[in-house]
Each structure stands twice: as structure tokens, then as C-alpha cells.
Design goal:
The structure is a single chain. The protein is an alpha/beta fold. The chain has a single domain, classed as Vaccinia Virus protein VP39 (Rossmann fold). The protein is about 30% helix and about 25% strand. It has nine helices and eleven strands. The strands form three sheets. Strands 3-2-1-4-5-11-8 form a seven-stranded mixed β-sheet, sandwiched between helices. Strand 1, helix 3 and strand 2 form a beta-alpha-beta unit. It is globular.
Amino acid sequence: MPDGWEWDSTLFQGCASYYERGRLPYAPGLAETLAAALGLDGRGRLLDVGCGPGTVILALARFFAEVIGVDPDEDMLAEAARQAGRRGVTNARWVAARAEDLPAGLGTFRVVVFAQSFHWTDRDRVAATVRDMLEPGGAFVHISDFKNAPADPAPVPLPAPPYAEIGELVRRYLGPVRRAGQGTLVNGTPDREDLVLARAGFEGFERHVVPAGAVADRTADDVVAWVFSQSGSAPHLFGDRLTDFERDLRAVLRRTSPDGHFAERLPATEIMIWHKPHGVR
């Protein structure tokens, strides 16, 4: 869990409806890469902790007999259920809970996934609990954008979203320290998942990078949705200045692209896998 920060239920309040439009997708081939790495065959159960609106769990559902998404935000779960219905996914169910509430009577799993959510948790406690919830040989999977990829030298055909200017505008409205729910992230979010998982007794580390590289066309509305899908700029944080902030945000976007069209290259996806030792119950 981030230093000096305590979770509260407003962390992603109001963000769920902006996710599908605002967030860039994971790299194509994520689900197939993970299925090949773990030998997934339609059996067993998957738990997605901090599942949000179902982005990862719905892509993986066809490789399991049952999938369960856990998230403390009811709006996120409602959006996940809506997306499941739209995609015809019938083997998913949704549980309102925090990672710290596990095992929550959910049983045993072949795979437990954290997609850009593990850093919000009490990581040592949650890792130990997840280890107990996994079958012998089961997998703890951490999924994130690959942040250290070399830049692609090929230019994109349209202006890129002005993320630096957007960040400056958010800080002008919300202060210099990143907001997160009712608190702030003075030191950012933690990393070094490898050390946490080693302390919990996991082994057999694997790392896979799924390439992307395609160029995504983005509109001003897409970029606004991206901003409001972030915990650090969730709509509720702006209070009665939300309308003013969105007006100024759109002005920033117009200065970069008067016709409101942008392009950016999709990031690669990093999959990190650790295993519960065989013979350990």
C-alpha cells in the first residue's frame, strides 16, 4: 500500500463510466499469451482482484470454467456486468469486496490476476492470502503497461494528447501532490512486486512482454474520458469546480489539436507470473 495513504471508497468514485472510452486497451494477444504461458484449457477458476469494469477478466473468461471479479466499487462491478452481458460472457460473477477482505469464502483458484491494482493493497497481507487461495502450482499474475519500452521512432500521423499540460492543469486545480480518494500519494505507488511475492513464498518467476505498437486515433472526448478515468483526477475530486476544469481541459486540447483529433501508439503489456509451489496446500 502506498506510504502514508489509507484506502477509502472514493478512490475511483465516478470513474467507471469513463473507462471503456478513456483507457487505452492492453496489447492484442494478452489473453492468448497468458493462456499459452499457463497452459489454460477451459478448466479451473480465475479470480481478478480489483477487476474494475472487467477489462481483463472478460478477455480471459473463455479459458476458465468460472471467473470471479472482485472490486470494492459498485459502479465498476455494474459496468463489468453490463460488459459481460454485451459480450455474451456467462461464466462470470461479481463480488463487492476489497483485496483485504479475501478469502471472503470464494474458494480455490487456478489463477489470481491483479491488473494494475496490486499497488493499492496491503501487499504483503494480500499476497499471503492469495497464496493460500491458489491450487498447488497455481499462478499469481501481475499485468501492467510496459513502461520501459524504447520509443518507436516512427511519428504518429496526428498530434499526441498533451499529457504534460493536462498534468499541469490537474495540479493547478487539485494541488501539487497526486490525489487518491480522500488522501494523497506523497511518494507515489509502490513497485518491486518481486520482493513482496518472494516474501510470500512464491517461486518460478516468468515475465512476458506482449507487443502492441499500433496507432490509436483519439478524439478530444476520448482524452477527457481518460482524465476522468484516473484516480488522481476522478470527477468528484473537483467538487463544484468540475465544469470549470472540463472547460479548461478542452481548451488545452484545442490548443494542441484545433479539430479535436489525436493519435498515440498503444503500449506493450507486461505480464509477470509467480507460482505457488507444488505440494503446498
